[in-house]
Amino acid sequence: MEHSVIINDTTLRDGEQTAGVAFSAEEKIAIAIALAEAGVPEMEVGIPVMGPEECEVIAALTMLRLPARLMVWGRMHAEDLQAASRCGAHIVNLSIPVSDLQIHHKLGRDRAWVLERIDYCVAAALDAGLDVCVGGEDSSRAEPDFLKQVVEAAENAGARRFRFADTVGVLDPFATYRRISALREITGLELEMHAHNDLGLATGNTLAAVMAGATHINTTVNGLGERAGNAPLEEAVVALRHLHACESGVDATRLPAISRLVAIASGRPVPPNKSIVGEAVFTHESGIHVDGLLKHPANYEGFSPAEVGREHRLVLGKHSGSGAVRDAYARIGILLSELEAAVILERIRSHAVHTKQAPRIEDLNRFYLEVSACAGTHC
Ligand code: KIV
Ligand code: ZN
Question: 40, 75, 108, 331: least CB-packed within 10 angstroms?
Fold first, then answer.
C-alpha cells in the first residue's frame, strides 16, 4: 500500500549546529530555495532568540514565500517565544527536556514543572498566532509513561505536533518502532521523528518511526547535525520510496546538486562512499561486478542511479578483469586481442597499486602503445 510522510528538513537549524558549521545569509537562502524547489514541504530554518542577524535571515526566508512551511526553534522561555513570534515563521518548535536525566541534571526541575511549562508556553504561542510543535528533547531516554503525559499535555494545550527527539542517538529501529507506536496509540497529534546518528542508525530509526505512525520526519542534507548528525535527507527519501513505497514528494534527481551546495556551504565534504550522493557510489571496478553490470545493470544495482540523477561509471583497477579492459578500450576505439588485454591488465594493476588511481585515457593509450611496441620487437 502506498503512503506518504512529510519531511521537515532541519539542515538550516540542527545541520548548522554541527560544530564548525556557520551558513551566511546568502547560503541559507540558496539552500532553502533548492530544498523548496526539490519539493521539501517543511524546513526548520533557525533559532530566533540567537539575535537580530538570525531573525533577519529568517524574515528574509519568510518573504520569499517559498512553497514550504517554515519552522523556527526555541526553548520554552518567554524570550524565545517573543523572538519566534516576531519573525513571521509558520510554526514554532518549542523544545523542553523530558528525560528525568535532563530534567534534573540540566534544568534542576521536576516532571510537574515540565507539564506546567508545556501548558503555559503552548497557550502563549497560540495566542501569538503560531502553530506549535512541542519538541520533546531526549524523548528516547524519557520514562515511557511520563512521555505519554507530556504528549497528552501538549495535545490538551493545543499543540498540533509532538517531536520525538532521540537527542543522543541511543535507539535502534526496534525500540523506535515500539516507542512511536506507543505514542501513536494515545494521541491524534502529528508525530515527528528527530533521529541522531551516533550509532549509525538515524535513517533506520527514521524509517521505523514512519512505519509506527510518525507523520513527519526530520532530515538534514548529507546528514549534517550535532555530533554524528541527523538522518540524511537523501537516504530518507530514497529508502522510504524503495523499501516502503512511501512518498515524500521530494524530487530525488535534485539530491546530488543539493548535496554539493550544502557540502560547499558547510565546509564539510561528502565522503566518496556516502550513500546516494557520494562521488564513488555508482562506480564499479571489480571484474565480477563489471561483468554482471554489462550483462544487466540490475545484477549489481539495487536501484537505478538515474533515479537520483546519476549514471554508473566503470573504472579499471587492481580488481578488473580482461573483459572490462577490452570494453574500456573498445569505448576509445581500440579493439584488443585477448592476449593484448591480458598483458595490459597487468600494467593496469601495477598502475593502480602505485598511483592509487584509475588509469586515465592518456594512460590507456600509453599502455597500448607500449604493449604494441613490445609485441613488434618481441620483447
Ligand atoms: O536533538 C535534539 O534534541 C535537538 C534539540 C533539542 C536542539 O536537536
Ligand atoms: Zn537534534
Answer: 108
pLDDT in tens, 287-322: 999 999 989 999 999 999 999 999 999 999 999 999
Residue 21 phi/psi, 5° resolution? Answer: -100, 130
Do residue 262 and residue 296 come from a single domain? no
Model confidence, pTM: 0.95
Cα first-last separation, the chain = 66
Q: Which domain holds residue 305?
A: 283-376
Neighbour count for residue 202 (Cβ, 10 Å): 29
CATH number, position 11:
3.20.20.70
Q: Whose CA is nearest to atom 5 of ligand 1?
A: 137
Residue partners of 247: CB distance under 8 A and separation at least 6: 2, 3, 4, 5, 240, 241
Q: Residue 185: how many CB atoms within 10 A of its CB?
A: 10
Same domain flag for 225 and 297: no
**H-helix or E-strand spanning residue 288:** helix 287-295
β-strand 216-219 against 6-9: which pairing, if any?
Answer: parallel
Residue 137 in contact with ligand 1 by CB distance below 6 A: yes
